[in-house]
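Why should sequence recovery work at all? Because a backbone constrains its sequence more than one might expect. Tight turns favour small or flexible residues, buried strands favour hydrophobic ones, and helices have their own preferences. The token representation captures these environments compactly. In the example below, the structure is given first.
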């Protein structure tokens, strides 16, 4: 699934001004993932309580209701313990694990689960686009921290990126 960023809609007829959150910048692995990641998410800011409802709302409803998420304290230092999403409350579990530093685990109980790379909000567009593509590649063998480290260490070239499984010609 690819979510395309669309600007918020302006005025709703008869209701004055209204605002709708833009779609999240999200790319999910098609079908079943065979790697450590199921895709990537590029939030617009580091306020989880603002970003998470749009992310959750864009996931396939047949996977069930998101019950909790696990995030790294490095990426979300001020994350609340709960986030209110339309129709339910999502528990936020914080971890100091290096493997979770740039990832979010979105858990729907026994029905479904996604492990997503979290691209820092201030990442340049070109790098973020490459990361969204690489993390959603079903053949990607790299973890979230490794993908992000490769992208940041090789902003202009692609040799190391491709040799370690990054998005390149297939």
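From this structural description, the recovered sequence reads:
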């Amino acid at each position: 699934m690819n979510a395309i960023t669309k600007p918020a809609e302006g005025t709703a007829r008869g209701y004055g001004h209204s605002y709708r959150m833009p779609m999240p910048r999200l790319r999910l692995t098609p079908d079943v993932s065979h790697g450590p990641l199921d895709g990537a998410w590029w939030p617009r800011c580091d306020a989880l309580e603002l970003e998470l409802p749009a992310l959750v709302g864009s996931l396939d409803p047949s996977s069930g209701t998101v019950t909790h998420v696990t995030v790294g304290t490095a990426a979300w230092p001020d994350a609340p313990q709960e986030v209110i999403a339309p129709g339910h409350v999502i528990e936020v579990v914080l971890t100091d694990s290096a493997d979770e530093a740039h990832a979010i685990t979105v858990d729907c109980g026994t029905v479904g689960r996604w492990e997503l790379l979290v691209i820092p909000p201030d990442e340049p567009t070109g790098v973020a686009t490459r990361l969204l593509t690489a993390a959603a590649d079903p053949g990607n063998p790299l973890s979230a921290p490794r993908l992000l480290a490769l992208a940041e260490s090789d902003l202009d070239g692609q040799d190391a990126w491709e040799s370690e499984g990054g998005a390149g010609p297939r």
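A few observations help interpret the result. The chain has a mean pLDDT of 79.
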